[in-house]
Design a protein that fits this description.
By secondary structure, the protein is an alpha/beta fold. It has 9 helices and 15 strands. It has a domain of 57 residues. The strands form 4 sheets. It has a 7-stranded mixed β-sheet with strand order 8-11-12-5-13-14-15, with helices on both faces.
């Protein structure tokens, strides 16, 4: 699989999208810089349910501090993949590497102990408990053999403030009284308090209004700015283009393509989702490069990285049989 190299540098902000997150680099003994291993790497991951092959030879990386969008049609294998990464299901083939080291995620607790937190579509919050109680559920702080209510309240308030969550009236109000966007914020803040380095969000903007969707997208950007990697599963391609640094497309259990978000547009993503082919991948950057060459073009418009499939544009494509 081809991924952006350190020499590529950070990608320019795509029109209407967010500024890119720089790739992490470490000093090289030879005097240059060496690319750090990805936070999470999947190598040849396969998962079968009886005769049904849900995942086949998935090779994928999740860089630190970047937002990766995982998209695909219904039945493409998105839920199976995130449940495999979350430790709910173990892969039948392949291996999982965390910061360059092979790991075995035999349970959700094993994934959480590594720093992988998953925010599912139902959020797994208790409507009858308040925000503080939800954020510390199962991890309550004790002081003098009693619940440290003040300490937990201060920690919850600070975490929400760090994520720029300012729409919550009181951290002692029941979660059942919150809007969809506020509930997402509580679920994400709970993950951050668990020292998560990778937050997986399953359809975070599903059934949300425009205002609440904006709150969630801003929350995703806040996570990335804090150095936390985010894997977003979404059917809303407008949200994907707006918030993601890279996009991975699944087709019938196979990885059809992984590309920087400025190398694709919604039409090419839809083509990959429905056919597994990548005829338009790279077209978006090519069109912007053509526009940049015209008289009066704005300086800094990214140029095309190369012809699709030749390994110079920093994406990988594959076609399901």
């Amino acid at each position: 699989m081809t991924t952006p190299s350190a020499a590529d540098g950070a990608r320019p902000a795509s029109p209407g999208g967010r500024a890119p997150s720089p790739a992490a680099e470490t000093p090289d003994p030879a005097g240059g810089t060496a690319q750090e291993p990805p936070l999470l790497e999947l190598r040849g991951i396969g998962k079968n349910f009886g005769p049904v092959r849900a995942l086949s030879d998935i090779d994928m990386t999740i860089p630190a501090s970047q937002v990766t969008a995982l998209v695909g049609d219904n039945g493409a294998g998105k839920s199976t993949l995130i449940k495999t990464v979350s430790g709910i299901w173990q892969p039948d083939h392949g291996e999982i590497l965390w910061q360059g080291r092979p790991v075995h995620l035999h349970s959700p607790k094993a994934a959480a102990d590594l720093g992988i937190a998953t925010v599912y579509q139902d959020l797994a919050l208790c409507d009858n408990l308040d925000i503080v109680q939800n954020m510390f559920l199962g991890r309550e702080q004790m002081k003098y053999l009693q619940l440290d209510e003040i300490g937990m309240e201060l920690a919850a308030k600070q975490t929400l403030a760090d994520l720029s969550v300012v729409t919550v009236r009181s951290i002692r109000q029941p979660v059942g009284s919150l809007s969809g966007g506020q509930r997402q914020a509580v679920a994400v803040a709970k993950a951050v308090m668990q020292q998560a380095q990778l937050v997986i969000m399953d359809e975070p903007t599903a059934a949300l209004g425009v205002t609440q969707t904006r709150v969630v997208l801003e929350l995703i950007e806040q996570l990335s700015n804090r150095g936390i990697a985010v894997l977003v599963i979404s059917h809303n391609l407008n949200d994907v283009v707006q918030v993601a640094d890279r996009v991975a497309v699944l087709y019938l259990g196979r990885l059809a393509a992984v590309a920087p978000i400025d190398e694709v547009d919604t039409a090419s993503i839809v083509e990959l989702m429905t056919t597994g082919r990548a005829g338009r991948v790279g077209a978006a950057s090519g069109e912007r490069a053509h526009a940049a060459s015209q008289p009066g073009a704005t300086p800094g418009t990214p140029a095309a990285g190369g012809a699709p499939g030749n390994g110079t544009t920093g994406y990988h494509t594959g076609e399901a049989p």
